Amino acid sequence: MKKALSLLLALTMALALTACGGTETADIQEADTAETEDTAGAVELYVFAAASLTESLDRIIEQYKEVAPGVTIVPTYDSSGTLKTQIQEGADCDVFLSAAPKQMNQLDTEGGEENTEGLDFVDSATRLDLLENKVALAVPEGNPAGIETFDQLAELLKSGGVALAIGNSDVPVGQYTQKIFAYYGLDEAAIAGCLTYGSNVKEVTTQVSEAAVDCGIIYATDAFSAGLDTVDGATAEMCGQVIYPAAVLKTSQHPDEAKAFLDYLSTADASAVFESVGFTPLG
């Protein structure tokens, strides 16, 4: 009788342990399934943006986490020319924000005569003119050289009496500067001794901030973000409008999510951020 009771007790305990083990296994399986579903739902979007958008877009990306918590925005900031080349060479990019139409046109089959290489990266149906900026003449703190206007700068460049920082010719801020030189009849080669260069607008801004030059031609938004004084602004007659186009790329692995983020950039919340640093929203 005692042996029978002992056997029954042992069998009961074994069944209980088996039941517990089954429950734990089921719990683990459910947790693994939930984790897999969460991972599957997560999306990374690669956004290539002109360097002048760094401060404002970083803030907007933080805001977007509340709107789309399952989407992680991975930004890359550089000159629009450099970003265009990286896209052309196969870099992962879902959304492109350029500081000028030229670099977007070069990637867009509908980009007209600027699409000289027949490239077809841009989803033209998503393309829009997102923002307008201004080209400004910025000076270091205290304006030691007493630069006041573009007119004065032009005369100083002709006489060799000023040090000016500008963007390289392959970046939009440098291309706008070339138009300003043409407006004043300045030959860039003839005034080369007065010039220093930056590979993007942030490099030019840094030269002005560090007073390595007497002045620099940058965007008004970069001057604002760097706390620099601007003494004059270029008119549309001098360099044209400074338009920032944006578009989803055809190579995007997540075109729906990319379009949703692009749409968000035109909302009131995003526009408020852009306006706070001096952009004019157009989208």
Task: Provide structural commentary.
By secondary structure, this protein is α/β, with parallel strands linked by helices. The protein is 46% helix and 20% strand. It has helices at 2-41, 54-67, 80-88, 101-107, 150-159, 172-183, 201-209, 220-226, 236-239, 255-264, 268-276, and strands at 43-50, 71-78, 95-97, 128-133, 135-139, 164-167, 195-198, 215-219, 229-233, 242-248, 280-281. Strand 1, helix 2 (54-67) and strand 2 form a beta-alpha-beta unit. The longest helix has 40 residues, at 2-41.
Task: List strands and helices in order, with pairings.
Blueprint: H1 2-41, E1 43-50, H2 54-67, E2 71-78, H3 80-88, E3 95-97, H4 101-107, E4 128-133, E5 135-139, H5 150-159, E6 164-167, H6 172-183, E7 195-198, H7 201-209, E8 215-219, H8 220-226, E9 229-233, H9 236-239, E10 242-248, H10 255-264, H11 268-276, E11 280-281
Parallel strand pairs: 1-2, 1-3, 6-7, 6-8
Antiparallel strand pairs: 3-10, 4-10, 4-11, 5-8, 5-9
Helix pairs in contact: 2-11, 3-4
